[in-house]
Amino acid sequence: MIISVRKCLSTLKFLLVFAALTYALYQLFSLIGAWITPVDHYRIPEGHAVKAFHSSDQAPAGEMMGDRLRFFYWYGE
After folding, report:
1. How far apart are CA 44 and CA 50, in angstroms?
2. How far is residue 54 from each of residues 11, 20, 57, 65, measured CA to CA in Å?
3. pLDDT tens across 13-71, in order?
4. Distance in angstroms between the alpha carbons of the first and the last residue of the chain
5. Are 64 and 58 in contact (CB under 8 A)?
6. How far apart are CA 40 and CA 28, in angstroms?
7. Most-buried pick from 20, 38, 56, 57 (CB within 10 A)?
8. What pLDDT is recorded for position 1?
9. Rounded to whole angstroms, how far apart are CA atoms 66 and 17?
10. How many beta carbons lie within 10 A of that of residue 16, not counting itself?
11. Residue 8's pLDDT is what?
């Protein structure tokens, strides 16, 4: 079995360049994601904005958990 040193070095160079470009692309996507994402997801809205979800420990009067689950699957909400 003959192992070509030139071919091994070429393959190693390709793998190093591929790994470097993959890492650079990952860092670029991470930077873009941090730029797009708001700083505080759960802050109180300002201006005319309305917070659409109010968390509470109790279900609204007369509403059972099974009904909520059925509503979720029916409307996808």
Report:
1. 9
2. 57, 45, 10, 16
3. 999 999 999 999 999 999 998 888 767 767 777 788 766 666 666 656 666 777 777 87
4. 63
5. no
6. 22
7. 20
8. 80
9. 54
10. 10
11. 95
